[in-house]
Amino acid sequence: MRSFALLAAFFGLAFLTGLTAYYGFGAVITAVASSSWATAFVVAARAVALVGAGIGWWALIPARQRGPSAFVLLRFVREAINSFFPFAVIGGDVIGARLLARFGIVTNLAVASVLVDIFIQVVCLCCFVLAGLGILLSLVGQQQVGTTAIVILAIAIPAVGGFFIALNFGAHEPLVRWLLAFGERRQWSAFAHIVDLGARLQQIWRNHRGIAESFLVHLAAVFFGAVEVWIALAFMGHPVSVVEAVVIESLGQGSRAAAFMLPGGLGVQDGALIGVCAIFGVPADVALAMALIKRVPDLLLGAPALLGWQALEGRRVLTASD
User: How many domains, the chain?
Assistant: First the structure.
């Protein structure tokens, strides 16, 4: 699995490098250089979106047993692990749940909250892609819309339905067994306490206000991501409207989700952004420069989050040895 992950990362990086070479290294670098302060603003926008995602996760916890700060911190950690280690997509979320238990949340409740949080995020992403696709159809007509978004939805919507059934109607026993085995292999004693996961899932589902608040916050955070596109293109001298930015970002995020096996959807997301931007008259080199700028937050926010994760792990080891 590790060698396959490395191969996937190599493929994605090679694809991205090939795109840059095809459209001209010089032209792309010039476009990036013309962005001025765009990168800093894009990093800030991504941080705001992740803070929102953390608050959306926190909203699921019944009685709000603690403040949102731990959830926000661990949301950055989850995002970093999932971006840098694509085959640990569920691993990043499982690690987030385990770390949340160290902040005073019962382990099975922490795991249940992550599972419902993932479900809500996927639903929000589907809504975002549907909105972008609908806007695109109304603007340019069906003949110019690629099949990427349709394929994503054809896969995602049944998956969302299956996920909901599994979470809400008790078909989670295989998941519990997998989590127990996952924890045992890594000697995570906390995961021995998730046998009552079904009851905790029902507790969260019954918290209708929390579910609604989480959905609204996550949905706002997903749509807010379009600000990154709007800022980057405006600073590079190729402004688009907010509605067009929503279309570009939604299909870019959808393609990234579809290419989950690649680190950050390397190459695939960038190619999709070039294709969608072309519909709105944005040159390919500028679109690729924008895609590269959008990858800067992955590094600038992800690297400190990974270091924070290791610091939390180190503190756990030191505490256990005392």
Answer: 1
